[in-house]
Amino acid sequence: MSMLLEVSGVTVTFDGFRAINNLSINFAPTELRAIIGPNGAGKTTFMDIVTGKTKPDEGHVIWGERNISLLGMSESQIAREGIGRKFQKPTVFEAQTVRQNLAMALKNPRGPFAVLMHKKTKSNAERIEDISGQVGLSDSLTRVAGELSHGQKQWLEIGMLLAQEPRLMLVDEPAAGMTPEEREKTTDILKEAAKTRAVVVVEHDMEFVRRLDCKVTVLHEGAVLAEGSLDHVTSNQTVIDVYLGR
Ligand code: ADP
């Protein structure tokens, strides 16, 4: 199967320190993946590389969708290719309603390429219905975003990201600060989104990773330490040592 994103042999050095060290990691066109690893493992730097914020010193980052390198592209060009990122803190327009927030996201398609690709068979109103349903906010469309719970704000932002129709979504600790019920709902939203795209979740919370029930990649010292099911990677002695701090 051809890959959606291929990162191979990537190294990032900050003042002589290798934050990312010969990292190779691939993602399929539709998959849910959790990336875990202790503090300083390189998880944030990895997301910065994929989104073009940080340029590697060595290695290749190939966008399989068009078989092109992402390395010469700006952050906005990469976003237009269909790579979306959700930061940990929700950033929605608090004074606007849920509907207005989603409408704004729909009005800013990721670029000319996306517009060409996207067959406009549905009106924006229909798409807002679809997306709000996907993220569990159908009954909250007229509510002001600032009045939503923390979990609902996170779902709204995921909805705004989905409105951009990313092929690859990077999501940073989506369950942080959520109630158990909100976590469960978030799991469902991410699983559903991953049926039609790659969804990569960077996560600290092992209980949440267990709920995601997906392939896990463990990063350590800027490289892949282990990969596979959660049970597989957590039975690896080196992974256990790394998490216990040796
Ligand atoms: P994680 O997200 O897994 O906690 P990071 O990607 O933030 O890890 O960091 C990986 C390593 O690179 C850490 O040791 C961190 O201190 C270092 N690092 C990250 N960004 C910079 C920077 N801009 N300058 C210097 N060192 C950095």
Q: Based on CA inertia axes, which overall geometry fits? A: globular
Which small compounds were modeled alongside the protein?
adenosine-5'-diphosphate
Using the CA coordinates, give the radius of gyration. Answer: 18 Å
Termini separation: 38 Å
Unreliable runs, pLDDT <50, ≥5 residues?
none
Q: What strand order characterises the main sheet?
A: 6-7-8-3-9-10
The domain tally reads 1
Q: According to CATH, what is the topology?
A: Rossmann fold
**What percentage of amino acids are in beta strands?**
15-25%
How many beta-strand segments?
A: 10
Task: Write structural notes for this entry.
With 246 residues, the chain is an alpha/beta fold. The chain has a single domain, classed as P-loop containing nucleotide triphosphate hydrolases (Rossmann fold, 3-Layer(aba) Sandwich), CATH 3.40.50.300. Helices cover 37% and strands 25% of the residues. The protein contains 10 helices and 10 strands. The strands form 2 sheets. A 6-stranded mixed β-sheet has the order 6-7-8-3-9-10, with helices on both faces. The protein has a 4-stranded antiparallel β-sheet with strand order 2-1-4-5, covered by helices on one side. A hairpin with a 2-residue loop joins strand 9 and strand 10. Helix 3 crosses helix 5 (124-134), helix 3 (98-107) runs parallel beside helix 6 (150-163) and helix 6 (150-163) packs parallel to helix 7. The longest helix has 14 residues, at 150-163. The radius of gyration is 18 Å and the shape is globular. The chain starts with a strand and ends with a helix. Residues 14, 19, 37, 39-45 line the site of adenosine-5'-diphosphate. One of its GO terms (molecular function) is ATP hydrolysis activity. Pfam families: ABC_tran.
